[in-house]
Amino acid sequence: MAELALYQILLANLVVLAGACLQGVVGYGIGTLSAPLLFLISPVLVPGPLTLNATLLTVMMLARNRMAVRVREVRLAIGGGVVGTCLAAATLMAISPRGFELIFGVLILVAVGLSVAGWRPRLSGRSSVLAGMASTFMGTITAVGGPPIAMIYQNERGPLVRANMSAFFLFASLLSLSALAFSGYLGAREWLLFLVTFPGVIAGFLLSAHFVGRIDGERLRGLILGVAGLAGAAALTRGLLSL
C-alpha cells in the first residue's frame, strides 16, 4: 500500500492481535492498548481502521458471551452514547489534522488517568448513561472508549462484564462509524487499511479463548496502562511539535 510500508502493516497486525486477545480475556482493551501504538506506527491507522476492527471483534465476543447480557444497563449506556457520538462528530468537523493529533494525545492520557484513578462508581442507570456518553465521545475520536464504561463494571462478574461491554461496544462502534463517515474520517482508505489489519483481530480473538479464566486481567493492567500512557504522551508531543 502507498500509505504504509510492509513492516508497518505487520506491526499493526501484531498490535491489534495483542489488543484483541486482551479484550477477549478481560472484556475491553483493544482501544486502550492498540490505539496509541497504532498512532505511533502511522496516524492513518486511527480512528477509522481500528474502530472497524473493534466492531468485528465485538461481534465475535458478543456471540461468545451473549447469554450473560443484562439488557437494562446496556440500553441506558447506548442512550448516553448517542449524545457522546454527536458531540464527537461536531468536534471532528471543527478541528484541523494538527488539532486531531493534540486532542488524540490528550484523550489517551485522560483514558489512562480514568483507569488508574481508583474511582469505583456503582453500576446504575445514571452511571450507565454518563459512562456511555463519555465512552462514545472518546471512542469516536481515539478508538479508546473502554475506560469510562469499564469503570462501572469493576465490581461485576467476568461473564457479565464481557457480555454487557461487548453489547455496548457493538452499538457504540456503529454509532462511532456513522460519526466518522459523516465527518470525513471514514472512507475508502480506512476500509482498505481495515482489510490489511483485520487478520490480527481474528488471530487475537481465537488466541484469547485459551486464556479466559487463566490470566488475571489485573496483573496485566499496570503494563497495559504504562504502554498506553507513554504512547499517549508521545502522540501529544508529536502534535505539539507540529504546531
Low-confidence stretches: none
Count helical runs: 10
Subunit organisation of the chains: single chain
Provide the number of structural domains.
1
Shape, per Cα inertia axes: globular
- How many beta-strand segments? 0
Q: Could you tell me the radius of gyration in angstroms? A: 16 Å
Mean pLDDT: 86
List the secondary-structure elements in sequence, H or E: HHHHHHHHHH
Question: How far from one another are the termini?
Answer: 28 Å
- Portion of residues in helices? over 70%
Derived from helix and strand composition plus strand pairing, the structural class reads mainly alpha
Specify the biggest β-sheet.
Answer: none
> What percent strand?
under 5%
InterPro entries: TM_pro_TauE-like (IPR002781), TSUP (IPR052017)
Keywords: Cell membrane, Membrane, Transmembrane, Transmembrane helix, Transport
Membrane topology: Multi-pass membrane protein
Pfam families: TauE (PF01925)
Describe the structure.
The chain is mainly alpha-helical and 243 residues long. It has one domain. Helix content is 78%, strand content 0%. The chain has 10 helices and no strands. Helix 1 runs antiparallel to helix 2, helix 5 runs antiparallel to helix 10 and helix 6 packs across helix 8 (158-182). The longest helix has 25 residues, at 158-182. It is globular and about 45 Å long. The protein starts with 5 loop residues before the first helix and ends with a helix. The mean pLDDT is 86.
